């Protein structure tokens, strides 16, 4: 099969298509013939040698954390799927390829009416957003949330989910164009952080109360300010560290307001943990995708061999929603 194998680490040019054997399909696995795969920030780090796959180390290091496609083969203990089923899946690597093998429990049937490209934009962004809003922040209808990087893949998913949960949503973005889009996704205010201070704007919007939760992808540069916009008992969910992973906080504020800072990561979780999350997510959202109330926002689709171009584009921060690689079988 054709796959993008990392034989060296470096710039986008190291993403080259190679011919390698098909992955093995274990007794609890399914082999998926991939039609489309999502690009994630983590792939850019992995390409630079900064985000190794979890153990056991694969024979070929292939980026790609999610895909949509068709079940080609099922392992002997798998009863949920059959060859020919259209599925999407969360994988811990290997999706920049024509085929990937993954635990059956980390895949689910593509909701009625969704294209392969739309489906490929769902697993990583939406499951991460669901985990953060529901499991990590425990948000309830009527509460307030600040979602940073609201036009990104995860941000655009989180805003839509938050709207379905009946939350009040503020977001931060890097341009006026992104601000418009995030309001269409469901944000009540979109703060362009190049021009405005989000702490000040969120205080005005929330009537000085602050927010119940912050979903953060920025890390270092925002950590203290995230604490400042929280109301008493609020929680910051750290999902990414785009500006750096080290930070200083005022522990006095943490104590006084009884705040929580907690992290989350999907890739490194054991398969059974992902299984529970995937099942919960699927039950909560399947119908919402079928009726179009939730949708993956797709910025653009490029063929697999243009993965270098996809990475260069993501690094410019210009994408609104997901970048997808389409995989045509040769
Ligand atoms: N924990 C997990 O399991 C998990 C899962 C998925 C993703 N993630 C992480 O979540 C983050 C977002 O992923 P994504 O797929 O949504 O990425 P994305 O689509 O590329 O969006 C990221 C956006 O963040 C903003 N940004 C980038 N660098 C920034 C900086 N230094 N300061 C402030 N804003 C910055 C940019 O938007 P603006 O122009 O609007 O600033 C950029 O477009 C990444 O760090 C990713 O690794 C974590």
TrEMBL record:
Protein name: NADPH quinone oxidoreductase
UniProt keyword list: NADP, Oxidoreductase
Matching InterPro entries: ADH-like_C, ADH-like_N, ER, GroES-like_sf, NAD(P)-bd_dom_sf, Quin_OxRdtase/zeta-crystal_CS, Quinone_OxRdtase_PIG3
Pfam families: ADH_N, ADH_zinc_N
Superkingdom of the organism of origin: Bacteria
Species assigned in the record: Sulfobacillus benefaciens
Annotated ranges, domain Enoyl reductase (ER): 10-325
A Gene Ontology molecular function term of the record: NADPH binding
